[in-house]
Amino acid sequence: MTRVVAAVIQREGRFFVCLRPKEKRHGGMWEFPGGKLGNGESLAQAAQRELEEELGLKLEFAGDVMFSAEDPGSEFTIEFIPVSATGSPVLYEHQAVRWASLAELDRLQLAPTDAMFVRHLREAPNSEAGRRIQ
User: Fold this and answer.
1) Half-sphere exposure of residue 16, counting CA atoms within 13 Å on the CB side?
2) DSSP state, residue 86
3) Cβ neighbours of residue 98 under 8 Å, at least 6 residues apart?
4) Domain of 120, in residue numbers
5) How far are the Cα atoms of 78, 89, 109, 115 from residue 67, in angstroms, in the given order?
6) CA distance 101 to 21
């Protein structure tokens, strides 16, 4: 399996999500930003690189894995970690970005594993991940 990091950025009860390019797998769906880990990279290092390359953001903090799942129909395992970042996003790769509440995320067309993560947040309000969204 290929490891992928998904950066969960939350501010004031809203989550930062990005619209995938149409020509990519799950194109036109919303996702938490991130990408594949490079050779020898940690999750934090991959998040830092991906946020900078794809959005021009600077990583300030990366936490422990909140949720991990295999992406259906692929060789990817996606690991969601809480992060904080600074800067104004630039659309180097994505079609759009937005801040969405948990309720709004339920109405967006999310990539399958991102939708699993949002369900996990909803179903586990007393877990560490669930406490982070309250």
Assistant:
1) 22
2) E
3) 16, 17, 19, 30
4) 2-132
5) 8, 25, 19, 12
6) 22
For the stretch 108-127, pLDDT in tens is 999 999 999 999 988 876 55
Rounded to whole angstroms, the Cα distance separating 91 from 1 reads 28
For position 85, which CATH number holds? Answer: 3.90.79.10
- Count up the domains in the chain and report the number: 1
Tokens representing residue 85 in the block:
């970042």
The answer to whether the CB of 100 falls within 8 A of the CB of 15 is: yes
Question: 6 has which bridge partners?
Answer: 34, 80
For residue 54, the 8-state DSSP code is H
The pair of structure tokens assigned to 87 is: 């800067």
Whether residue 18 contacts residue 101, with contact meaning beta carbons closer than 8 Å, is answered with no
Backbone angles phi, psi at 53, to 5 degrees: -65, -45
The tens place of each residue's pLDDT in the chain, 134 residues long, gives 899 999 999 999 899 999 998 888 777 899 999 999 999 999 999 999 999 999 999 999 999 999 999 998 899 999 999 999 999 999 998 999 999 999 999 999 999 999 999 999 888 765 554 444 43
